Amino acid sequence: MKADTLNGQLDPLILATIAEDPAHGYAILQRLRQRSSGAFDLAEGTIYPALHRLERDGLLSSSWAVQSGRRRRVYRLTRAGRMALRERRRDWIRFASAVEAVLG
Amino acid sequence: MSWLERLNDELSGLGLTGRERRRIVLELRDHIDSEPGCEDRLGDPGELAARFGDELAADRTRRGTYYVFGALAIAAVALLVSQAAIGAAGSYPGFDRGLSLALFVPAALGMFIAPQVALVAGTLAALRAVRRRKARILPAAELALIRRRSWVGVSAGIATAAGLELYVVNFSSVLPGWWLALVGSLSAVAAAALLAAAATLVRAGAVATATSGGAGDVFDDLPVIRWQWLQSHPWRLGVAASLSVGVAMTLVGWHAEHSLIEGIERGVLEGLAAAVGFALLGRAIGVMTPPSRWADPSPPDE
């Protein structure tokens, strides 16, 4: 699935990916790949502007941490991010059921 | 040149400097170190840098505009308090009772003309920023328009605060100390807030973006005035607005001073000031109908 198809859905996917466990950019990408069974084939760099934007919007917070001997920027969901994720999940379920009802 | 060096150069070229740029480069370095040889999958460094720049420019411009609007609200409070409290301070002293006419004239312009410019420009800037709050990226021309409106608003706000301070100095031997202290301190707070807001605008303008698209104008911001007649000539909106201001201020002056003549004098002055403001700033803040609308008044694509 190309980035164009993911357009508009990348933000909630990122929020969902780190809902349970904070992660750095590379780990987020790995989780996206694993959970989608490799279906999401986006230019890997695009995840970083999205992470920065979500942080500016107050949905994520981040800090430097040393993991495996390397300094990494680790992202976690904020309270606003959890609420936004719940809302996006509800929207998606409504949208998916409507599409399914039409497509049959 | 390595992928990371190219990214670093591209980010610098777009005006992303200091901590912001270092953080991006460090995060991408960690990504590459996690999976050596993955640079191809990260995409073109120029495109990635442009994506960062486009989103940051839109975000900073919107935030800067909100700060300007907030600072203008503080200046408005300072002005309203000064006017509301002047009655308790013994009403307006005659202009000839101050220290100098050279202080009185700029003070009066700052207190009575600049606030109107600040109100129009600041409100239009905030209106556009709010209307486009969900857009991740905005055309460069639109960002420039929002920042110009904000700059006009913040400059007029500073002129208002300066006008109040000059008024305080000019009538320091006439008005009571409590009024001078109250208005002097409120306008100083407003000036500090406006300068801080101006700094955020400087920061917003430092990030280059090349996203194509139109800037839009006042008819996009206020659909209620989108009449074909108003849009078909660059001056029609200005004339209509100036006449409305003139009539409104005549009525206000008539009511306040219980004199139709004084009301008309005030209305004519305010209407002329509005017309001069429109002529000087109309194009800069996007209230003058652009030539593209003269023939086809439909809104441009956004």
Describe what this molecule looks like in 3D.
- The complex is a heterodimer of chains A (104) and B (302).
- With 104 residues, chain A is an alpha+beta fold.
- Chain A has helices at residues 3-6, 10-17, 25-35, 47-56, 79-103, and strands at 23-24, 60-67, 70-77.
- Chain A has one domain: Orthogonal Bundle (Arc Repressor Mutant, subunit A), CATH 1.10.10.10.
- In chain A, strands 1-3-2 form a three-stranded antiparallel sheet.
- The mean pLDDT of chain A is 89.
- With 302 residues, chain B is mainly alpha-helical.
- Chain B starts with a helix and ends in a 7-residue tail after the last helix.
Brief digest:
The complex is a heterodimer of chains A (104) and B (302). Chain A is an alpha+beta fold and 104 residues long.
Keywords:
heterodimer; A: 104 residues; alpha+beta; Arc Repressor Mutant, subunit A; three-stranded antiparallel beta sheet; 5 helices; 56% helix; B: 302 residues; mainly alpha; Four Helix Bundle (Hemerythrin (Met), subunit A); 3 domains
List the secondary-structure elements of chain A in sequence, H or E.
HHEHHEEH
The CATH topology of chain A is what?
Answer: Arc Repressor Mutant, subunit A
Mean pLDDT of chain A: 89
CATH architecture of the largest domain in chain B: Up-down Bundle
Q: Main β-sheet of chain A: number of strands, strand sense, barrel status?
A: 3 strands, antiparallel
- The total number of structural domains of chain A is 1
Overall pLDDT metric of chain B: 90
Using only C-alpha atoms, the radius of gyration of chain A works out to 15 Å
How far the N terminus sits from the C terminus of chain A, by CA atoms, comes to: 22 Å
- Write the H/E string of chain B, N to C: HHHHHHHHHHHHH
Number of separate helices of chain A = 5
Portion of residues in helices of chain A? 55-70%
